[in-house]
């Protein structure tokens, strides 16, 4: 009798587990994407070389090519949704897109609101300074003084890092990366703090107007963000990333955007 009860209990438990799994899959964003036939991606087109507008007005970049590869793997169409940075997480949480693929740094604060797939690249904060200050400023420590005006982008990890490590400086926040960097070019700021990829590209385009201190002073893994409570989608993303890194797809896309600057001539 006891064996029968145990067997019945195990069967019931298995049935409940299967029902729960089916329910999770039905609610999964991945299931919705497949049924819809379209992957909807939130990104802010203004972060070279991850996502930006080309001369034709199309959004291009490293994240865009990764999104294209992901949509291809899903066998669905791709819908890129340009979204202001300060509203990008709310857009995800209100289902205006399926995923954020926009050079977003994985932080504990953000992780309370969203789930991140495994990091797909690691960057850090670096500094652009005016050429006349290159012999006076060699690291972020030298800028931690009220006499220096330091620009960065509002609501980013550059904003956080500047306040944390260069808090004594006169900090000015801007809506876009380009606006902040332009303050240095125009002589209105002594330095600009932002992610290494953007600063490296910007300095190569303005080598006579800024000096790039390219030694990162923060560690920042970037990850794709999705809504919480979706293990199926998260599992797919981590496996997709492992696959493209293993089959050469990732290296090909990385080389296109980081090992070469040929794409610069096509960007506005």
Automatic annotation (TrEMBL):
Pfam families: SBP_bac_3. The keyword Signal applies. Its main location: other. The keyword Signal applies. Residues 38-260 form the Ionotropic glutamate receptor C-terminal domain. SUPFAM superfamilies: Periplasmic binding protein-like II (SSF53850). GO terms for cellular component: cell envelope; membrane. It comes from the Bacteria. Keywords: Signal. SMART domains: PBPb (SM00062), PBPe (SM00079). It is found in: Cell envelope. Belongs to the bacterial solute-binding protein 3 family. This is Amino acid ABC transporter substrate-binding protein. The lineage of its organism: Bacteria, Pseudomonadati, Pseudomonadota, Gammaproteobacteria, Oceanospirillales.
């Amino acid at each position: 009798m006891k064996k029968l009860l145990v067997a019945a209990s195990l069967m019931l438990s298995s049935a409940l587990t299967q029902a729960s799994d089916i329910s999770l899959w039905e609610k999964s964003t991945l299931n919705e994407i497949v049924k819809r036939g379209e992957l909807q991606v939130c990104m802010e087109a203004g972060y070279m070389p991850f996502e930006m507008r080309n001369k034709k007005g199309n959004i291009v970049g490293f994240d865009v090519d990764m999104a294209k590869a992901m949509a291809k793997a899903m066998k669905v169409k791709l819908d890129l949704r340009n979204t202001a940075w300060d509203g990008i997480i709310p857009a995800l949480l209100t289902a205006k897109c399926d995923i954020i693929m926009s050079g977003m740094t994985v932080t504990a604060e953000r992780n309370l609101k969203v789930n991140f797939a495994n990091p797909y690249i690691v960057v850090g904060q670096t500094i652009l300074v005016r050429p006349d200050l290159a012999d006076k400023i060699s690291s972020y420590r030298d800028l931690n003084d009220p006499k220096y005006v330091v620009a960065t982008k509002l609501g980013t990890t550059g904003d956080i890092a500047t306040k944390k490590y260069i808090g004594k400086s006169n900090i000015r926040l801007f809506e876009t990366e380009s606006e902040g960097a332009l303050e240095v070019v125009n002589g209105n700021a002594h330095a600009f703090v932002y992610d290494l990829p953007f600063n490296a590209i910007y300095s190569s385009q303005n080598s006579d107007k800024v000096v790039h201190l390219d030694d990162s002073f923060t560690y920042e893994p970037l990850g794709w963000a999705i809504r919480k409570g979706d293990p199926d989608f998260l599992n797919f993303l981590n496996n997709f990333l492992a696959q493209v890194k293993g089959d050469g797809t990732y290296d090909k896309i990385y080389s296109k955007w980081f090992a070469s600057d040929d794409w610069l001539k096509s960007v506005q």
